[in-house]
Specification:
The protein is of the alpha/beta class. The chain is 38% helix and 20% strand. It is built from 12 helices and 13 strands. Helix 1 crosses helix 12 and helix 8 crosses helix 11.
Length: 338
């Protein structure tokens, strides 16, 4: 089985695509299939990919090089906010099975398999189309290996540790502001602050730490899981990290930093998992964070939030995709051999 995963990741756009494509890669690998991960990205993206079978290539503009990797029997998984409809159509002509990762009904995608792991996406108004297959809802969200199996989280009576995480690069520089708010209100609480690969505000974060702050530079997925499990509350940007927080059952205050997170925010708020503090540039952000923190001080509230998150994300989303594709190929092979 020839599997190609196409995605992107830049310092100025974020690395959420890389995170979930890594999860899909790992699920194929666990099934004895080594994909080729082709990334339109920069050096920061390269450092995230580690020992995966990957290539850095601007596949949006070098389509001839991209097509050299493909044959009719290939499976192509594409996770992009930059690729246009023309390229999607070309891919469906080149290969038999295409999987399109979507978050926001971005394009009128061609025939193929469309996966949207956004919580609540089952209710999105996708068009009915011949030869279009849908895998919708948080049961399909791809999570990395370390989130496949998660021990039960202890919901403590009191809030003793707070996790602060703003993604891979903190494009809105919200971490120092969160630190200031939490330090003033909760000086005796342990603050676990994540500093991602591409942060440009590291010096400011270091200056903002108090005596009860621990900084974690470029933590891997195992370390992130550990931080989530030991923290009583998380304050997080509203991207893909919310699904890992839900998986670990970590009650979360979410902050919107990019417009494409809106469906995430709406879905998780409706589900009752997150406490939403508003957009990164809101004049009331600090005040809202404190209001939501006060709500989460109650043990029964945190316990309820935790159970909601765990019930909606079980860590098996990438496996469900791989199993779906394997069954689809087996069915196609059976028909072709008749």
């Amino acid at each position: 089985m020839n599997v190609i995963i196409l995605t992107e990741g830049f310092n100025n756009t974020g690395f959420g695509h890389l995170t979930r494509c890594t999860a899909i890669y790992q699920a194929f690998e666990a099934n004895g299939i080594i994909p080729k991960l082709i990334v339109n990205g920069d050096k920061n993206a390269e450092s995230i990919l580690g020992n995966l079978n990957f290539a850095i290539l601007n596949w949006l503009h070098n389509t001839s090089l991209l097509f050299d990797h493909l044959n009719k029997q290939s499976i192509v998984v594409i996770d992009s906010y930059l690729a246009d409809l023309k390229l999607y159509n070309e891919l469906t002509l080149k290969v038999k099975n295409c999987v399109f990762i979507d978050d926001n009904l971005r394009l009128p995608y061609p025939s193929g398999i469309l996966l949207n792991g956004t919580v609540g996406s089952e209710s999105f108004e996708y068009p009915e189309r011949d030869k279009r297959e849908y895998l919708l809802g948080s049961k399909y969200i791809p999570l990395r290996t370390d989130f496949w199996h998660v021990p039960e989280k202890t919901i403590n009576n009191n809030v003793a540790q707070i996790l602060i995480t703003a993604g891979g690069q903190d494009i809105r520089n919200i971490t120092p502001e969160i630190q200031k708010v939490v330090n003033e209100k909760y000086p005796n609480v342990v603050k676990n602050v994540v500093v991602g690969t591409a942060f440009s505000n590291k010096d400011e974060i270091v200056k903002s730490k108090d005596e009860n702050t621990s900084l974690y530079f470029q933590p891997d997925s195992e370390q992130m899981k550990s931080l989530m499990l030991k923290s009583d509350i998380a304050i997080s940007a509203a991207g893909q990290t919310l699904y890992e927080l839900a998986r670990t059952g970590t009650p979360t205050i979410a902050i919107g930093v990019i417009e494409n997170q809106l469906n995430n925010i709406k879905g998780w708020e409706k589900a009752g998992f997150i406490n939403y503090a508003g957009w990164w540039n809101s004049a009331e952000l600090s005040e809202n964070i404190l209001k939501e923190m006060e709500k989460l001080e109650q043990h029964e509230v945190r316990n309820s939030k935790s159970q909601i998150g765990i019930s909606l994300v079980d860590g098996k989303g990438a496996f469900r995709l791989v199993e779906y594709l394997k069954e689809k190929l087996e069915h196609e092979n059976t028909i072709s051999n008749q």
